[in-house]
Amino acid sequence: MPIIYYDGGCVYCYNFAIWLIQNGLSTRYQFATLKGSTGQQLQREYPAARRFDSVILQEGDHLQFKSDAIATLITSLTNYKWLGVLIRITPKFIRDFGYNLFANNRNNMWKTHWHKPDDYEQSFFID
Question: Which structural domain, as residue segments, surrounds residue 11?
Answer without folding.
Answer: 2-123
